[in-house]
Amino acid sequence: MEIPRVFQTIEESGFSTWVRDSPFWAIISIHAIGMAALVGASTVIALRLLGFAPDLPLAPLERLYRFIWSGFWIQVVTGILLLIGYPTKSLTNWDFYLKLTLIALGMIVMHLLRKRVFSDPSMSEADMMIKGRALAMWSLLFWLAVVTSGRMLAYTYTNITYPS
Amino acid sequence: MNLAHLHLLLNHWPIIGTFVGVALLLVSVLARSNDIKHVSYGLFALLAVGTIPVYFSGNAAAEATKNLNFSMVLVETHEGAALLAFISLLLTGLFALVELWRFTRNGQEPPLTSLSRGLSAVLILSILTAVLMVVAGTTGGDIHHAEILAAGETSPAIATIGAGLLQSIRYFVIDYSRWVWPVLEDLHFIGLILIMGTVGLLNVRVLGFLKKLPVRPVHRLLPWGIAGLVINVITGVLFFIGMPGFYVFNAIFQAKILTILFAAGNLLLFYCTGVFRKWDQVGPGEDAPIFAKLVAASSLLLWLAVIVLGRYIPVGEQ
């Protein structure tokens, strides 16, 4: 399949060259920290809903959504920067589209969890756990898949830049 | 001073430390003192992390001997023995850390009337470590002091087993399949998430975010963080054994290991001093004492630095 020319245009732009040069490692570091915030906070909520650390009060954990959303936006910004640096590398790899789909699924599950489990302050912890159980398992599964598909991007690409 | 010097400087510590730790543990059983027992546990946990640079810098020392007429057989024998001693000390440290966590979770322990399961595990592992350390130490000493070797003496069987294990691990990590390395990388990131999710949450709470949470129950999540730490030590050591030449002289990798030592030291400061027992009592909506906040802030910064340095390792190669 022909690789769209526009990838080459992006790669030759000054901004893309700049991203590949100096700040690349800084961006990828922040991308790792954003992952820790987003997936770490989601994992804590999921583990608690699945019955671990049972004496940890559930309702105040809603505050972790701050870390989930700030982590998410950090990932969007750094992710776009990395994409501008290496458009061919990502966009010609099916694993990249798989990762984006899985992120969407992960965020949808976290949103549903908030709406169904954390929105009603009168709900007992036992009810919250019953209502959140399946979603918590899906969230762990999706985040595991997101991290795995993301990590595999470094090993599954065919062209790192536009082939000359 | 270079890395080979560092190896010679540090390599006696795990050996002597293990003996001191075993002695303290035996005294604690005889004297029925939980305090002495916890000092011993803390020592083993610290030794376990502290042995990582000892093991890693050994590759630099081996590199330095290559141009001299030392026997490579002796070097390989020592490498094998050292690997087994290293693994055994890591296990001892892990069990000691788990026992410390169990203590801080309950806040109290039954009097030492009999050997508990956890204590027996640490005791047996630490004695095994001491034996393996002796083999690692003597085979290491033989490299530079061939005059002590008796004529016709062969390498200890344990060291030969260790050298074989080292070869198998290197084959598995590098040659077995091109997917072993990516899977290890994936696990290393999952370990990172477990550490940051649990240790990070505890730090963030002590610093005053999520104030509605009482501090004590957050502690119940820490085994997941310890699991993350175990995953990352194992996968990290596998990366190193796979490509020692890539890592050992890499300044950013060295900085990462040093930062991990500080972060682990911070964790032990929090376990083995009264700090935890103070912030333990911090209930919903309450502020943690200032010293606890300092420990939490430095812990958070150190772990973030570990992530950043880890991501920068390829830059250290250039």
Helix content percent band of chain A = over 70%
Radius of gyration of chain A: 19 Å
Assembly type: heterodimer
Helices and strands of chain B, in order, run as HHHHHHHHHHHHH
> Strand-residue fraction of chain B?
under 5%
The number of E-state strands of chain A comes to 0
Give the overall silhouette of chain B: globular
* Low-pLDDT regions of chain B: none
How large is the share of residues in beta strands of chain A? under 5%
Average pLDDT across residues of chain A?
A: 94
pLDDT averaged over residues of chain B: 87
What is the total domain count of chain B?
Answer: 2
Instruction: Compute the CA-based radius of gyration of chain B.
Output: 21 Å
Bulk shape of chain A:
elongated
Task: Tell me the number of structural domains of chain A.
Answer: 1
Main sheet specs of chain A: none
Largest inter-chain contact set: A-B, 33 and 36 residues
Give the N-terminus to C-terminus distance of chain A in angstroms: 15 Å
Number of helices of chain A: 7
SSE pattern of chain A, N- to C-terminal: HHHHHHH
Number of E strands of chain B: 0
